[in-house]
Amino acid sequence: QGIIKTRTFNKLGEVAILCNVHTEMESFILVLQNPYFALTDKEGNYRIKDIPSGTYILKTWNDKLKLQTKEVSVPAEGSITVDFEFK
């Protein structure tokens, strides 16, 4: 408790932080190449702000659910809505 450690990640992807004593204690870090990401709220809603116009691949990530991807075109003005379904 109260210990702070600093790490620099040089590879993109998922980093699992696991406790070898308490199996329920786990954490994940996603190392991304850009600042365009969001966390969902309690209802599963999300918003990614200030994305330049263009076509992108939007990916979901959850340590227990299957990865989903969708190609999206972001307009120069306005907004778009992209929904994912998890079963």
Q: Biggest sheet, strands in spatial order?
A: 1-2
Strand content: 25-35%
- Approximate shape: globular
Radius of gyration: 16 Å
If you had to describe this structure to a student in words, what would you say it looks like?
The chain is an all-beta fold. The protein is built from no helices and four strands. The protein has strands at residues 13-18, 26-31, 54-59, 69-74. Strands 1-2 form a two-stranded antiparallel ribbon. A two-stranded antiparallel ribbon has the order 3-4. β1 (13-18) and β2 form a beta hairpin. The termini are far apart.
State the gist of this model.
Helices cover 0% and strands 28% of the residues. With 87 residues, the chain is mainly β. The mean pLDDT is 90.
Provide keyphrases for this structure.
87 residues; mainly beta; two-stranded antiparallel sheet; two-stranded antiparallel ribbon; 4 strands; 28% strand
Please describe the topology of this protein.
Blueprint: E1 13-18, E2 26-31, E3 54-59, E4 69-74
Antiparallel strand pairs: 1-2, 3-4
